[in-house]
Amino acid sequence: MGKNVKIKRGMDIPLEGKPSTHIHAISSSTTFAIKPTDFKGLIPKLRIKQGEEVSVGDCLFTDKKNDKICFTSPVSGEVAEIVRGDRRAITAIKILADSSEYKFKEFDIQNYPSKNVDEIKAILLESGLWPFITQRPYGVIADTEVTPKSIHVSGFDSSPLAADLGVSLRGQESQLETGFKILNMLSEGGVYLNLHAKKDNTIYQNIKDVNVSYFDGPHPSGLVGVQINNLDPINKGDIVWTIKPQHVAFIGKLFETGKLDFEQNIVIAGSEVKEPAYYTTRLGASVDSLMNDNYKSENVRVISGNVLTGTKIDKDGYLGFFDNQVTVIPEGNQYELLGWLFPSYARPTLSPSLPISKYLKKSFNVNTNPHGEPRAYVVTGQYEKVLPMDIMPQQLIKAVMAKDLELMENLGIYEVIEEDMALCEFVCTSKINVQQVLSEGLELMAEES
User: Fold this and answer.
1) Which pTM value belongs to this model?
2) For residues 449 and 447, what is the distance between their CA atoms, to the nearest angstrom?
């Protein structure tokens, strides 16, 4: 039976630029990109050459450490460019999409309910859907040779300006149902679907044979790591998989049609967007084509994802592999003369020194200014106010900085990944890059394990 969990610690960040619920059908992007940099620890091994023609579902590259894991093309067309960075590392593969109908690779999904686990895995690996499954601990692509203790899906997103999945996944109920059937075939410990207690969960009403729990409270109540910690914490030796609902729908589409379909409804939001709303596009789309002069001003930061965990990209950059959101806010690169001396503008904060922010403002027009430089790391108790998990976050980060592996393990590093502690970074008085520090600690633990 599921649980009802009330999250009391946390912090909602109400930002201006909330999207309307209208879904815009936009003309397709001409170029798409898959970025190996979206995957932690991935070393890509190319399977195509520049100038080669590809279909939807053709393998572009594999993981050098596990050649079974394919990363496939979201569109059909010509491989326009293989972008390389430092030391010739591959940073992106750009595809010039066909202007007419897409060509699709066919996958053998006949009688899939009767297939065994290995056959289902083989289809997910060949089609490029496997990389959507994230493994905890460490937050890496799921190990193909492991059977997880359980699979967890967060049915809602509490991040700032996040998509309402009841809107973005409306009409995909059948695909979700099929996708959850496939997940059930992958885990002996069952699938957990975690929903919001007060939101419309109609899109999940036909899902069967899953453990349903309900959560209520501020962000990060919608993060799957917080949900796992409150339902069934990860201990040393445990393996848990997670996947997002929109990616479950991708799996369902494949097993219903035999074709890979990466079309999705994403949110474009933020105070610098003229018309924040939902837009229909495909995985890896060019943000330039998505925005189409939808900016209010020029000096902006474009983020693939949300403001807490997203990635800064150029205006002609590309949507991240795991993202269903683009956020645009003002770039905070203007110097504030004696900003520490004068009353500041209202902004989201835990500090009681800005009561107007807490009591008088319903939403905020924020920029990227950190309002201070990194300084001495002091114990403030702020992390504990916004992290509703049974760990000691500040002590954990200090242990990571000291590279004390045993202490990191004892303090619960197996239970968290970067997104779980994004709010800790937001409220940090010492201006510590908490997510970056934690990422280095997770990488160190993975190497030593």
Assistant:
1) 0.95
2) 6
Cα-Cα-Cα-Cα torsion 140, 142, 146, 151, nearest 10 degrees, comes to: 110
Please give the Cα distance from 34 to 266 (Å, whole number).
17
Contact 412, 396 (CB under 8 A): yes
CATH number among 3.40.50, 3.10.20, 1.10.357, 1.10.287, domain 263-349: 3.10.20
Residue-level pLDDT, tens digit, the chain, 449 residues? 579 999 999 999 999 999 999 999 876 679 999 999 999 999 999 999 999 999 999 999 999 999 999 999 999 999 999 999 999 999 999 999 998 899 999 999 999 999 999 999 999 999 999 999 999 999 999 999 999 999 999 999 999 999 999 999 999 999 999 999 999 999 988 999 999 999 999 999 999 999 999 999 999 999 999 999 999 999 989 999 999 999 999 999 999 999 999 999 999 999 999 999 999 999 999 999 899 889 999 999 999 999 999 999 999 999 999 999 999 999 988 777 766 666 667 778 776 665 555 555 678 899 998 887 888 898 889 999 999 999 999 999 999 999 999 999 999 999 999 999 999 999 998 999 999 999 999 999 999 98
Length of the chain equals 449
Classified as helix, coil or strand, 281 is strand
CATH 3.10.20 domain locations along the chain: 263-349
Q: What is the DSSP string of 243-260?
A: --HHHHHHHHHHHHHSB-
Q: CA dist 142 to 121, 181, 345, Å?
A: 11, 18, 44
Q: 420 near 434, Cβ under 8 Å?
A: no
